[in-house]
Amino acid sequence: MTATTAARRVLLAAPRGYCAGVDRAVIAVEKALEQYGAPIYVRKEIVHNKYVVQTLQKKGAVFVDETEEVPEGNIVVFSAHGVAPEVHDEAAAGRLASIDATCPLVTKVHKEAQRFASEDYDILLIGHEGHEEVIGTMGEAPDRIHLVDGPEDVAGLQVRDEKRLVWLSQTTLSVDETMETVGKLQQRFPALVSPPSDDICYATQNRQIAVKQIGADADLVIVVGSKNSSNSVRLVEVALQAGAKASYLVDFAEELEEAWLEGVTTVGVTSGASVPEILVDGVLEWLAARGFGDVEIVKSAEESITFSLPKELRRDLRAEAAEAVAPTAK
């Protein structure tokens, strides 16, 4: 091998970073702060990324775990991951004006759950227990939805009628693992109905395809993203399955370790769907300072999808919230 072929390089995945749903949710909080001023309350993390949350906090966003923590007469934003119907009820009961920043692709899954439940199906929801998106979706039909947290859960499932079953899935899962679970479900329940369209979102699929391409040629793959970001964690798994010798998840360039570069000539870099590009830039600068300045973009798809902002931002929510609490103030 010549010095030229052994030269250090970076394979930069494209697409990477922000998806349309994340972009919409983050802008929704920023616009609310611009229109109505601080504080704007946000239930849970608007998206699963430390940097994004910290940046919005500095601008005046206040993150809470539950709706009841928001003082009445204020505005609350629901995160991109979606919420159960009871959360909307809690906001109304607390005299709050709300902005629903749920990703439209998650909303699609919620509507599918509502429809199939109304048609008396049992719904097998493939997803990770405790994830906010799963909690929100299950809230649409708690008596009809059974969580399937991977292929190992299939054998123990108990359903009312094996002939009236449909599967849905969390949008941020590994495509390969999900289809493995679907395969096992179909083996056990031959009459299982598939959703009208694949629930795993376009951005999750595209980022996994991209990381497969760079993972096959990389000694090391760096995934920029937070540990509570399901789609970011999946990218590490997919990189390793694609052939990368090592893969690590980091929020910031400062978390990178020199030891990871030992014996490495090719580094793959990508980022989860809730990660702003400034964090990827920091990783590329860190790598360039250590001899990995040759960056090759590996493009696997074009993305042009955009979503309009939540309709609530077109109303005067401050006035609406003040009016909601006016009767108690009299």
Q: If you had to describe this structure to a student in words, what would you say it looks like?
A:
This protein is α/β, with parallel strands linked by helices. Helices cover 38% and strands 17% of the residues. It has ten helices and twelve strands. The strands form three sheets. A five-stranded parallel beta sheet has the order 10-9-11-1-12, with helices on both faces. A four-stranded parallel beta sheet has the order 3-2-4-5, with helices on both faces. It has a three-stranded parallel beta sheet with strand order 7-6-8, with helices on both faces. Helix 2 (50-59) links the parallel strand 2 and strand 3. Helix 4 (104-118) runs parallel beside helix 5 (132-138) and helix 7 (202-215) packs parallel to helix 8 (230-242). The chain is flat.
Task: Produce the secondary structure layout.
Layout: E1 9-14, H1 20-36, E2 40-43, H2 50-59, E3 61-64, E4 75-78, H3 85-93, E5 97-100, H4 104-118, E6 122-126, H5 132-138, E7 145-148, E8 165-169, H6 175-188, H7 202-215, E9 220-224, H8 230-242, E10 246-250, E11 266-271, H9 277-288, E12 295-299, H10 317-329
